Amino acid sequence: MAQDGPAKKQPKTRTTQTRIQRKNTAVLFDAALAVFSTHGFRGATLDQIASAAGMSKPNVLYYFRSKEAIHTALLEKLIETWLDPLRALDENGEPLDEILAYVRRKLSISRDHPRESRLFANEILQGAPRIRSVLSGELKQLVDEKAAVIQRWSDAGKIRDVDPVHLIFSIWSLTQHYADFDAQVHAVLGEETDPYPAAQHYLESLFTRMLSH
Amino acid sequence: MAQDGPAKKQPKTRTTQTRIQRKNTAVLFDAALAVFSTHGFRGATLDQIASAAGMSKPNVLYYFRSKEAIHTALLEKLIETWLDPLRALDENGEPLDEILAYVRRKLSISRDHPRESRLFANEILQGAPRIRSVLSGELKQLVDEKAAVIQRWSDAGKIRDVDPVHLIFSIWSLTQHYADFDAQVHAVLGEETDPYPAAQHYLESLFTRMLSH
DNA sequence: GTCTATAAGGGGATAGAC
DNA sequence: GTCTATCCCCTTATAGAC
């Protein structure tokens, strides 16, 4: 739903895309993700995106009406992926297992999709100008809902007493750290080291000790 | 040591600054910190910095030879402040107290100096192009040293077994989250809420449960 | 020390040929 | 659908008067 297709004169209908359109928008999304995630919105240039996508600058603007449109489309495309791991937290599951599984899902995202993580980090760091409404709408609602679940687990004595919202914040920060601060993590551990196995063990141990009686 | 004074023709000696120079560079640092921390290096403009400092653009460039020079000077000025809280971790103190005190120092920095936190976050997020040598030099050395301290505490049975480097990473990520992701924290908690009292309680509880027998 | 004016180049977006 | 050429604004930095 994110991309708006050819900007002005859609060649076919607006619902049907040719194979070449589909392929080009996919290539463009990947290129834009690479460039925006490392340089931020204003630091990124259409030249960089075009050359990363292997096409000319005007051709990029044939698919998206502006630099802003690419960025917005990217964020919208990713936002659901970003919320899904928390959505999957199941009140009927075993509480500690559910939380550890959520931690593992988030850590996997940092490992497998670090650029997406840095794209969001860039956006939020700068005050979330383009996604503030999503944060205070969809995201807040989801957090409130899942915080209530955690609170009930805690009230029922199934996990130790804990502030549910700050628990969620801590899962976000601990897992996303390995993607967002990758440069620092590798500066400390050495470029060769894969931090994820040790990170997973550390985080499972941390949340287990904190939450189990 | 960071600023290089008037760029080309230092008016007096290079070691002595006039009162007006001292005042202007201080004002400039504050303005630059505000602008760079919210927009990143390339997103920031000299116009924004100049107007935030209440001076004209050429006047800004009278004090620093380039935009890059302002940014570098800022980072250099802040780096020691950034490392000091970890330096203060004392092997001879009571282990859990030392770690909790470090957590509190870091959390206070997020609360009192969020712009500095976001400046570093921006820099590291973009691959730390301008401070990579500090990270793999001074910072790595300090982390190695303090990780060894924590390892000895752990070996001596004074705290529970823990990966010392990931423990340090977790303190960084958990505390800096409240400054760097301020926009998200407030979107979830509401603009009026001060997250820090609850954050401090949550984090103390987290590390106490994780580290004490 | 501070200003106005301006040079020089980068970067987003469009025109129009193919 | 894709390209070359180009427009024009924004931004960094300098020149030179006061």
Overview of this structure, please?
The structure is a homodimer of 213-residue chains. With 213 residues, chain A is mostly helical. Chain A folds into two domains: 65 residues, Orthogonal Bundle (Arc Repressor Mutant, subunit A); 138 residues, Tetracycline Repressor, domain 2 (Orthogonal Bundle), CATH 1.10.357. In chain A, 73% of the residues lie in helices and 0% in strands. Chain A has ten helices and no strands. In chain A, helix 1 crosses helix 6 and helix 5 packs parallel to helix 8. Chain A is globular, with a radius of gyration of 20 Å. The N terminus of chain A is likely disordered. Chains A and B meet through helix 1, helix 6, helix 7, helix 8 and helix 9 of A and helix 1, helix 6, helix 7, helix 8 and helix 9 of B. Chain A binds a DNA duplex (18 and 18 nucleotides) through helix 1 and helix 3.
Short description:
By secondary structure, chain A is mainly α. The first copy, chain A, contains ten helices and no strands.
What are the SSEs and their pairings?
The structure is a homodimer of 213-residue chains.
Chain A: H1 19-43, H2 46-53, H3 57-63, H4 67-87, H5 95-112, H6 114-125, H7 132-155, H8 164-180, H9 182-189, H10 196-211
Helix pairs in contact in A: 1-2, 1-4, 1-6, 5-6, 5-8, 5-10, 6-8
Chain A binds a DNA duplex (18 and 18 nucleotides) through helix 1 and helix 3.
